[in-house]
Amino acid sequence: MQSAPTEMPPSARILQLAMASWVAAAVSAAAELAVADALAAGPRDVDDLAKTLDVDTTNLYRLMRTCSDIGLFEEHEGRAFALTEVGQALRSDAPDSMRNFARWVGLPADRSTWTGLADSVRTGRSVFESVHGKPVWEYMRDHPDVSEIFDLAMTDTSSQVTTPVVKAYDYGSFRRIVDVGGGYGQLLAAVLADNPRARGVLFDQPAVVAGAGAEFAKAGVQDRVEVVGGDFLASVPEGGDAYLLSNIIHNWEDEKAEAILSRVREAMADDARVLLVEVVMPPDGEEGLTVKLMDLNMMAHADGVQRSEEQFAKLFAAAGLKLSRVLPGGGLCSIVEAVRA
Predict the structure, then answer these.
(1) Least enclosed by CB within 10 Å: which of 130, 234, 242, 305?
(2) In sequence order, what DSSP letters do the residues of 224-269 get, joined into one string?
(3) CATH number of domain containing 264
(4) Which pLDDT value is given to residue 4?
(5) pTM for the complete prediction?
């Protein structure tokens, strides 16, 4: 007869939870060192792996054995390691790669900001500026190396929602789709590939869209895309019958989120649709740890908010729009649709 599992003492559970940031740091280190890429062809012993990665053998083994215990690698006899199914997603070339997101959360721009979370709660404001000396978007502008990893990280996360979002909504009636804050254009490329009669406009900061092009060429839609640089707080391209904003509005407090949506309303055709791809906060009292952690991340970094359906309705109304429906977008994301009020 098996004995019942021993329940973890509260103090041990707190210790486990408090050490979670160390787990994240180990994942980030493995991602930064490109360990998964080096194991793509199969198991390798740690000495050989260390030579390829040009790192210290002893400390690499210490990292690898830890990452094995959290499920990224399997340790074989002779200090050899292989990728697990989960570890495959740390490969740069994996279709579901999250390597750059894991790199991002290991950078001081992200990790150090979380050290000020309690101050954000005390003050009601983000703490990025107090930790790093300037607001987050100015910091990104002045640190192009960090901004590049951030953009790649956002592409990683976007890739996880692209296919579900494309399939979850009927874009067939649209002829001009404006992707506001669309980064390198991964989502827009997928939408256009699935809707051959539509044309698209990729709109983001000039430094960002300067790196666009590869996604459109890969999807074979480059002849149907216009790339425009600008500031969506000032204006957005006119004449679209669909305005797509994927994980943009959550970055901003209500006043600036309203300003962005107001610029969209000014530019959109009378019968156009606004389509926000967002992780929607569940009603109070319902579980949703991932979205609640994302909300804390927004709170600390940029005064952003993961909003509920009710909050989106109020935000739209303030910008002269009206919430029409919320559709499941696959995974965590939803498509929050609005029309002119």
Answers:
(1) 234
(2) GEEEEE--TTT---S--SEEEEES-GGGS-HHHHHHHHHHHHHHS-
(3) 3.40.50.150
(4) 52
(5) 0.87
**SS3 (DSSP) at 75:** strand
Which neighbouring-strand residues pair with 227? 202
Distance (Å, whole) CA 152 – CA 159:
10
Count of structural domains, the chain: 2
**Joined tokens for residue 91:** 């490969």
The whole domain housing 14 covers: 10-90
Q: What is the pLDDT of residues 151-177, one digit of tens each?
A: 889 888 877 777 788 888 999 999 999
Enumerate the active-site residues.
Answer: 250
Q: How far is CA 119 from CA 24, 113, 127, 226, 340, in A?
A: 22, 10, 7, 43, 39
Residue 3 inside a domain? The answer is no
d(CA 238, CA 265): 10
CA end-to-end distance (rounded Å), the chain:
66
